[in-house]
């Protein structure tokens, strides 16, 4: 097969720079995920009797949970020895190093705090937030593509990419795993939004969250077989770190879906806690 049948990827990760300030595709797409997500979430919340103010508050929690969780996830899961020996390096987010599994944990914790403080039903919040998280995840993977990072093993498939700007590996055609993940998560976003738009409050509580977690991390587990390992220590492992971290999340998703199948409770109107739940929330404050 001729090399001309492959895609030569030579995109500059930097859009433009002004003095020491540079604007990069990854940062733009990361921010775009929050911007679009806020607009979509506003539509969802208003349609179910909530306010735009609720979205503003939850967006703040989401930003903090995502950034802090993703950064700490990278430092603890992929390079704990280095970062624990150089803790100041943890703060240098601009140098790269964000882990999606850490972001997941950070988001779950941040939204739990949000739900407790704002008197929301936690699962109602999760069912709706995963719609926009899926869209954000697709945009972030596109950012990885623009950075020529997190790509796959060498391959001879006709849609393989040659990542010219990444000199760490030999310049051979590789699986564009960033595109695989971006497409799969975008389709997940479309499916989740369609389900919500068609059924809204008639959806059983936990269904959207269960579908999201199970589908997202099952695909993540499978696509890792096509990826280059992110860290050298993974080369001696039967499963890499991304796969190991995906397994418990897949099990959580399956458990949630099983509970939904056993007892399909309708969602609370507008995510408001019932009168029975309100005293419990106050007592555990």
UniProtKB/TrEMBL annotation:
InterPro entries associated with the record: Lgt
Ranges annotated as spanning the membrane: 25-46, 58-78, 98-115, 122-140, 179-196, 208-226, 238-258
HAMAP family: Lgt
This protein's UniProt keywords: Cell membrane, Membrane, Transferase, Transmembrane, Transmembrane helix
Annotated binding of a 1,2-diacyl-sn-glycero-3-phospho-(1'-sn-glycerol), by residue: 141
Pfam family, one: LGT
EC number(s) stated in the UniProt entry for this protein: 2.5.1.145
Record bears the keyword Transmembrane: yes
Role this protein plays: Catalyzes the transfer of the diacylglyceryl group from phosphatidylglycerol to the sulfhydryl group of the N-terminal cysteine of a prolipoprotein, the first step in the formation of mature lipoproteins.
GO molecular function ontology, one term from the record: phosphatidylglycerol-prolipoprotein diacylglyceryl transferase activity
Source organism: Pontibacter ruber
Membrane-topology descriptor: Multi-pass membrane protein
Compartments it resides in: Cell membrane
Protein name: Phosphatidylglycerol--prolipoprotein diacylglyceryl transferase
EC category: transferase
Pathway(s) this gene product operates in, as recorded in its UniProt entry: Protein modification; lipoprotein biosynthesis (diacylglyceryl transfer)
Family: Belongs to the Lgt family.
Main location: membrane
Entry keyword Nucleotide-binding: no
């Amino acid at each position: 097969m001729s090399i001309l049948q492959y895609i030569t990827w030579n995109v500059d990760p930097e859009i433009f720079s002004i003095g020491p300030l540079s604007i990069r595709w990854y940062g733009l797409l990361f921010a775009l995920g929050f911007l679009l997500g806020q607009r979509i979430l506003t539509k969802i919340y208003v349609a179910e009797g909530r306010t735009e103010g609720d979205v503003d508050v939850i967006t703040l929690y989401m930003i903090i949970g995502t950034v802090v969780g993703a950064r700490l996830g990278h430092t603890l899961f992929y390079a704990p020895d280095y970062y624990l020996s150089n803790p100041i390096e943890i703060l240098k987010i601009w140098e790269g190093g964000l882990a999606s599994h850490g972001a997941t944990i950070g988001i779950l914790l941040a939204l739990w705090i949000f739900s407790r403080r704002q008197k929301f039903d936690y699962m109602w919040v999760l069912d709706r937030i995963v719609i926009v998280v899926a869209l954000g995840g697709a945009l972030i993977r596109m950012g990885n593509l623009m950075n020529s990072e997190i790509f796959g093993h060498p391959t001879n498939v006709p849609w393989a990419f040659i990542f010219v700007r990444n000199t760490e590996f030999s310049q051979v055609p590789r699986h564009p795993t960033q595109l695989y993940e971006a497409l799969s998560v975008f389709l997940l976003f479309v499916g989740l939004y369609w389900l919500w738009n068609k059924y809204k409050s008639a959806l059983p509580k936990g269904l959207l969250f269960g579908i999201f977690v199970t589908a997202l991390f099952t695909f993540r587990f499978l696509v890792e077989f096509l990826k280059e390992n992110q860290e050298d220590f993974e080369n001696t492992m039967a499963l890499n770190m991304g796969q190991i971290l995906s397994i418990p999340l897949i099990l959580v998703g399956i458990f949630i879906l099983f509970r939904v199948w056993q007892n399909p409770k309708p969602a609370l109107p507008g995510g408001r806690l019932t009168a029975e739940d309100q005293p419990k929330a106050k007592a555990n404050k």
